[in-house]
Write a structure and sequence with these properties.
Blueprint (H helix, E strand, L loop, with lengths): L1 E2 L12 H10 L5 H21 L6 E2 L7 H8 L16 H9 L9 E3 L6 E3 L15 H13 L4 E5 L1 H7 L8 H22 L3 E5 L9 H17 L4 E5 L8 H5 L5 E5 L6 H9 L6 E7 L9 H12 L7 E5 L18 H5 L4 H17 L5 H16 L6 H12 L8 H12 L16 H11 L5 H22 L16 H6 E5 L6 E4 L2 E3 L3 E8 L5 H9 L6 E5 L1 H6 L2 E2 L5 H21 L4 E5 L14 H16 L7 E6 L8 H6 L4 E4 L5 H7 L8 E4 L12 H12 L7 E2 L11 H21 L1
Parallel strand pairs: 1-10, 2-5, 5-6, 6-7, 7-8, 8-9, 9-10, 14-16, 15-17, 17-18, 18-19, 19-20, 20-21
Antiparallel strand pairs: 3-4, 11-14, 12-13
Bound molecules: glutamine and zinc ion.
Glutamine binds next to loops.
Protein name: 5-methyltetrahydropteroyltriglutamate--homocysteine methyltransferase
Pathway: Amino-acid biosynthesis; L-methionine biosynthesis via de novo pathway; L-methionine from L-homocysteine (MetE route): step 1/1
GO molecular function: 5-methyltetrahydropteroyltriglutamate-homocysteine S-methyltransferase activity; zinc ion binding
Amino acid sequence: MKSGNLGYPRIGGNREWKKALEAYWAGKLDEAALHAELKAIRLGNLQRQREKGIDVIPVGDFTYYDHVLDTTAMLGLIPDRFGHTGGEPGLDVYYAVARGSKEAAASEMTKWFNTNYHYIVPELNEAAEPRLTRNRPLEAYREAKDELGIEGRPVLVGLFTYLKLAKGYAPDQLTGWIDRLLPLYAQVLRELQAEGVRWVQLDEPILTTTLSEEELAQVHRIYAYLTLEAPGIQLLVQTYFEAVDAYEAVVGLPVHGIGLDFVHDGGANRAALRKHGFPADKVLGAGVIDGRGIWRADLARQSALLTELGEQVAPERILVQPSNSLLHVPVRAAGEQRLDATLREALAFAEEKLEELALLARIGREGAAAVAGELAAAERAREALQQSPSRRREPVQRMTAELVAQPASRAGDVQTRRAAQEARWQLPLLPTTTIGSFPQTPEVRSARLKWRKGEWDDARYEAFVQEQIREWIDIQAELGLDVYVHGEFERTDMVEFFGEKLGGFAFTAGGWVQSYGSRCVKPPIIYGDVEFLAPMTVAETVYAQSLTDAPVKGMLTGPVTILNWSFVRDDLTREQVAYQIALALRQEVEALEAAGIGMIQVDEPALREGLPLKRDKWAAYLEWAVKAFRLSTCTVRNETQIHTHMCYSEFQDIIDAISALDADVISIETSRSHGELISSFEDGTYDKGIGLGVYDIHSPRVPAVSEMTGMIERALRVLAPEQFWINPDCGLKTRKREETVEALRNMVTATRQLRERY
Ligand code: GLN
Ligand code: ZN
């Protein structure tokens, strides 16, 4: 039994990769220096994997931005608007596709399956002349061999996944595109074969989504062709993020190995393997170490799983692998010296996961007794966290259980609440408001930094925040908005802010994960029972409300968004953790209401992100997600108005769940997708308040009054004016002050013009 890896974080232990890219873009690093820096990171990663005892090390997974874009460049499919004529694109063209240039807008970027990694969407064009511009996997293979003597396993994005993620062609052109690109894949493989490469990993995560019979036949055709073209190469078709949908078709592909995810498959891969067996002539890539979570594995359980698999697959044909590329986890937990030792010891980031892989493979070869010491130490670390008081907060557990048993419903129905709220608020038709944050100017950021470093004491920082709030309350009054916000000046990030104030959350110093391009995020870690410790937003909100008679909306991040943007403990289900967060937020909602705040917005921009890959699992997810939101918001009085906000516009397929949130008012991003969203509301069954963002906050451009009136009129063709709210698309924290004020002024003017007409 051997250990294998599927991909490694590019960003380096200290985000050196990000720094190098950004220095190059800023003109502070020349091209040769960039190549040298990235090569050092790349070789360092390979060496690390060897040191940790990984037998099969992937090569070619490294990138200068995104591996899907690398594939596009390799196949000669750079879109025409970048003015590139054939051959291998230089870095200027490569980065123009990723980030845009003066002449051409960047290619679209979107989420890689259900992860927070974003890839550059390939744009196919009938007139393109695909050709192999460069054999990237071959170069990577040679480099690892020449420089380090490592016999790597080249990785490529599989052709079917690549095409399914691409846009710019009609469904009936798929076959044609396979025909056009297949010879190029064959050429890559033939050249690798000539070089003496033995195994190649082809990533086909698309095989975990639902595919039709015809599509599966296409996949079969692809691999039959490639196997025939490069018979000397053994192909590993690698799947991940879910169970494969058509187990027998996938394991029956004419290749030498199949990689399956046994961590995120809900048990389905394991059950299918037990039921249908596994072809005796194939290698099984067994994804038994979680490539997305950050916790130490239960090695005893995973090695028992390997033993079970070994009953159907000869152990020497099993490769012990992570469930997916380690790209999705941070680099190294051992360096987190500021974390509590009990927590740190229970973590496994990429480096620690390599050790786990090597250990499991060794157990497979030599038996558990050979590594008894390591196993016991690992188990002690897991147990210590499990037994720690942070995971045994009895009041939280009792209250959560009670909470979940109660119905999560507001006292009054929608009509009753609407009447109570109209009587209390007396808002004009088409009320105007904003989504929460106002510009986080350099001044705001530098104040926070001084406070964090201890240069400013709490009193000084709080006074500064109050000054900002006062200034923006005055601006909102002067603009004539109807519902105000305090501006969120005290927050860096909408999840981090709450995580720092709740029990059960921890923050790493270097737990970065690539999100897109050079952008990395550092998700909070939910390691213990989530506990409300003290009011988190009451002081700032009440201060803002004390300055005006207009209603000030309280502003919270919802339970599902906090969950989906964090690393979550794995001893409870996500559902259970969501309810714990809901309980804490409910206490905050109640504290705001008790302090006289009568409108409270609970943002859920990440609700959609949590949707499972498989459609048939959507309902179960949405049910508990909606329930968590309702649990946090349902105890307020009828006249207290609950708002929510979401930053996306694909609504059609989850509109019932969104309606079931039962928020009195929802604001949604729309300005980049007019028509489609509005049609979601066409049947008139959505009976609550709704604000479709009337301008795009992602751009510094100030929209004209007429653009906004046009947008509003279009919406009013399907929505009743009594339902409709006027607001921007999202929070304004990334905008400059002047453009914000001007845009909001135009928004208020547009609203006033329309009020005359309705
Ligand atoms: N209230 C938050 C803000 O205005 C919402 C941010 C978001 O939707 N991502 O910044
Ligand atoms: Zn938003």
